[in-house]
Amino acid sequence: MKALFALSALVLAIILAPVAHAQAPGTISFQGSATSQRGEPIADGTYDIEIALHDAERDGQTVYVEAQTARVTRGVFSIEIGSRKPFPASLRFDRQYWLDFSIDGGDRFEPRIALTAVPYALSASQAVSLSPTSTNGVHSINCTHGPIEIRGSGATDVRMQGNV
């Protein structure tokens, strides 16, 4: 019985381990609607879709392009932007971007679509906006045994006081 419990606990730990280290996904869900020039949904089928992100609503610079193949049903398709070509580190989502797309090399659909926040981004904006003097941080660590390891970048400031 103990062996079965231990095995069950091990399997559960393996299954839940990725959840413990979960982070915001590195993709953007996008569902588009494609119509003909007459305003009718394009025919059902598989299409090559090119997505582009721009730094302005009109004109401006193209900051990211990704090509994907997607199934279109009644003019609607869904893709995960960034799943085929990861976003470069230089593309920071701390400003407004606009999206457009083309299907099978045709004209780009207009107008461009403004990207908006998702729950992950709303949460992360709190971390980005913290100042170095923020009172939101670790104020104390109480440990009864074992070493404590603190890691950080060149901007990490660690002050030790009390019983060290």
Helix and strand topology:
Layout: H1 2-20, E1 28-33, E2 45-54, E3 62-72, E4 76-81, E5 98-103, E6 113-114, H2 119-128
Antiparallel strand pairs: 1-4, 2-3, 2-5, 5-6
What does this structure look like?
With 164 residues, the chain is α+β, with helices and mostly antiparallel strands. The protein has a domain at 27-128: Immunoglobulin-like (Sandwich), CATH 2.60.40. The chain has helices at 2-20, 119-128; strands at 28-33, 45-54, 62-72, 76-81, 98-103, 113-114. The strands form two sheets. A four-stranded antiparallel beta sheet has the order 3-2-5-6, with no helix packed on it. A hairpin with a 7-residue loop joins strand 2 and strand 3 (62-72). The model is unreliable at 1-14 and 16-21 (pLDDT under 50).
